[in-house]
Amino acid sequence: MKYRVFAANWKMNIGPLEAREYLRSFFSAGQLPRGCGVWFFPPAVSVEAVARGVAGHDNIAVGVQDIYWEPKGAFTGAISGAIASQAGARMTLVGHSERRHVFGETDEQTGKKVAAALAADLSPLLCVGETLAQREAGETIAVISRQLEAALAGRAAGQSRVTVAYEPVWAIGTGRNATPQDAADVHKEIRAWLAKHAPGIVRILYGGSVNLKNVAQLLAEPELDGVLVGGASLDPHGWAELVRTGAA
Ligand code: PGA
Question: Which of these, 118, 219, 236, 247, could form a disulfide with 25 (CB 3.0-4.6 Å)?
Fold first, then answer.
């Protein structure tokens, strides 16, 4: 049975008090299926509550949604990998499309964040993906290759503790998901790029409007090693059901 990852990106939702309540409901839905990992990416202030709440569950891990690349200092509002790690994070998202498009994060900055995450012993979940205009112009693979190259440039050679998430921007929060075939086609290209330029990085998740209805069909595609889910991870019962459905 193939190991699959179910990553929940809560975005700017679920504070520390709500997180405790969420986990109570999530666990009341019963045991997680075998052969899967569940990763939670709460807002930074909720990381500690989630880390405490999932302690002892070997198949559940917690990460932050973003870090700054400097290790410490006068950077008001930012958090470093080391600070996130102290709060209980074991991983971090890097280069999510909302960071790129809402906050103007550049390819070069994602590279600094990947390197900083690894230096702080956090596993990066690196998000890449094209906009609708780029897809329609036939630039999908060129855009993703450029994003991968910049994001992985600063990492020590051979450092492969990175997971990639393919998240087409046009599919995020829009209700419009890539078909399993569309996703698999891009995953194959990403896999080929990684084999050539970053061997050892092999896990690729799909994200963008994944929900209870489409998760089984998407994960039936062997190219997908898991899913990164925003909206459909916010309800604890719905999320538990999505994990069970996808892992079946
Ligand atoms: P969505 O978000 O599932 O709400 O489309 C996915 C993501 O942004 O990671």
Answer: 236
